[in-house]
Amino acid sequence: MKKLLSSVAAVMVLSNPLFAETTLTVANWLPPSHPLVSEVIVPMTEQITAATGGEVVANILPAPLGPPAAHFDFAINGVADITFGVQGYNPGRFKTTNIAEIPFLGDSAEAISVGYWRTFDAMLKDAGEYDAVKVLGVFTHGPGEIFLKEGDASAVDLLDGKKLRVGGGIVHEVTSTLGAVPVEGPSSKAYELLSQGVADGILFPYESVNFFKLIPQLEVGVSVPGGLYNTSFYIVMNKAKWDSLPAEQQEAIDSVTGEALARMAGQMWDRADAAGLEAMAGSTIVTPATDEQVTAWTAALAPVIDEKVAQVSETGVDGPAALEMLKAEIAAVVAEK
User: Fold this and answer.
1) Are 152 and 209 members of one domain?
2) Is pLDDT above 60 for 6?
3) Which residue in 103, 131, 195, 299 has a CA-CA distance of 20 to 30 Å to 58?
4) Averaged confidence pLDDT in the chain
């Protein structure tokens, strides 16, 4: 009789909506070993479960649902509850990301990412680009540097005529403005493009050069103060799924996403960049950009930066004010450290 009563009680508890577990599906298009997955997405799912006392469980799907560029729409349409990706994979769709991708912002992904989130939350979200989803986080990878098969690392015209593999976002314009020839291709094809002579080099953060096993092909590296570009990422949630959660669960999830998630992602990129730079020792010689190079590249890229900030203003957000806030918040995070 006691066993029967215990079973009945268990069924009542499990069937009670107050004790029901909500499961969120998380789409993933990267290898499980990539640090963005293992050190950001996985911990995020664990933190969501912990923050909600086990009431919300986020499960990463075992296989990609489609190409990276489709993932923002997967969140909108509810194909998955949570997705992440690169805004630049959807050209022209997100103008506010320009703020976080422009050259010379800083040398720490953590500082840029936290500053980016604060600026997004205060200003950029008013553009309405993310109104169809719940934004859990925006952040950037580490500063993009120059890597070539060969060349005079100190030359101002180092990039003239060089064919550089590029991805989405501002990096295409940075490459062409500095005299190089952009070669479009996903990160996964970078090794092939370099090994087959289609590309002479690449603009990448240290992490990516290491992760995609490009170090043996690249003898010359130039580190640019503040970086030549950054790549913006998003993590978003289906709006209807978010709205279905009780306020208490929403508050719990907010406590481990937003700025906290941006900081965790930025710290991951900084660690990965440090490991990538260390892995280059004895193979790729990385030297700081000369004063002459910095002066020339800063002047050349000024119109590109102005154009990108103007595009932010086209969304109704004050672009110059947003950039000023971003720079101030980056400096504040650096000062905190």
Assistant:
1) yes
2) no
3) 131
4) 93
